[in-house]
Amino acid sequence: MSLSEKTKKLKEIKEEIIELEESPLYSYRKDNGYFPVIGEGNHDADLFLVGEAPGENEAKTGRPFCGRAGQILDEILEEVGILRKSTYITNIVKDRPPENRDPTYNEIALYAPFLDRQIEIIEPKIIATLGRFSANYLLKKFSFGEKFSISKINGKLFERDDLPFKIIPLFHPAATIYTRSRREDLVEDFKKVKKLLTNNK
After folding, report:
1. In sequence order, what E strands does 81-201 have?
2. Pick from 38, 53, 83, 126: most CB atoms within 10 A?
């Protein structure tokens, strides 16, 4: 698929999500003057980063990972030598849940098909999940298992010969705010991601 075709199809997804009135988060978005957070970055990216759901800063701007967790992510990407603009970054849920609560099963089920389409369009080589919700969704979808503990699988590589990409679950950058050692883990795991990207060239 050409880059222009990818951009066109991603724009179609954006338009669908903007009008997603059946979402239980739609009225909350409208009432608060928030934006849906579709995703941003390179539409031809080798590295696809997927978090959980937007926070308040993200919902106010429509940009993923632009708050405190985003600053941490940017710092770590820079530290390991990955350009943020070379990646594609999104969340499994595209609208902010109230009070930054965890996304519900129904919300994930509603928004996940948009994520599936984004992955199909962008055709990444590596999918790095940030946090347990995106990890568990994708690992279940691609038949690696169910209900993993992120602390037990972070940094592990999930791959199959019939899949065009590898999945590597990582801690969410927000986890490093409360547990300093998690930052060191995340840096080391992103070093693995960088190595994988280099080996896939």
Report:
1. 88-91, 126-130, 166-170
2. 53
DSSP designation for 100:
G
Task: Tell me the pLDDT tens digit for each residue of 145-157.
Answer: 888 888 889 899 9
**Nearest one of 160, 89, 165, 154 to 127, comparing CA atoms:** 165
Give the pLDDT mean for 63-74.
Answer: 94
Q: Which residues contact 101 (CB under 8 A, 6 or more apart)?
A: none
Domain ranges for the chain: 3-199
Distance CA 27, CA 25 (A): 6
Could you tell me which CATH class the domain 3-199 is placed in?
alpha beta
For the chain, what percentages of helix, strand and coil (3-state, to nearest 5) are there?
50, 10, 35
**CA nearest 37: which of 64, 8, 16?**
64
